[in-house]
Amino acid sequence: MLLITCPVTRTDELVADRRIRSVVNHPTHIALHVECPCGGVHVYRTGRRWEAARRAAAARPAPELTSA
Ligand SMILES: [Zn+2]
């Protein structure tokens, strides 16, 4: 099972593995083409380097969780 967020309906959808149409390996990430319950096919990217690149792009100070 795979939890995705549908960009069309903006809802979280739990989809079965067989709904994954294709998996494409890229140097920086893996692209999953997933058949969504909304009827569309969405592409999701996953991978350590992809996550790292995203984190770097979204770098901002973490909220201070320990302050009273
Ligand atoms: Zn969808």
Strand adjacency order, main sheet: 3-4-5
**Count the strands?**
5
The percent range for strand residues is: 35-45%
**Unreliable residue stretches:** none
Number of domains: 1
Query: Could you describe the largest sheet, including whether it forms a barrel?
Result: 3 strands, antiparallel
Assign the structural class, choosing from mainly alpha, mainly beta, alpha/beta, alpha+beta, or little secondary structure. Answer: mainly beta
Order of helices and strands: EEEEEH
Walkthrough of the structure:
By secondary structure, the chain is mainly beta. The protein has one domain. The strands form two sheets. The protein has a three-stranded antiparallel beta sheet. A hairpin with a 5-residue loop joins strand 4 and strand 5. The longest helix is centred in the C-terminal third of the chain and has 10 residues. 1% of the residues are buried. It binds zinc ion. The site of zinc ion has 7 residues, from loops.
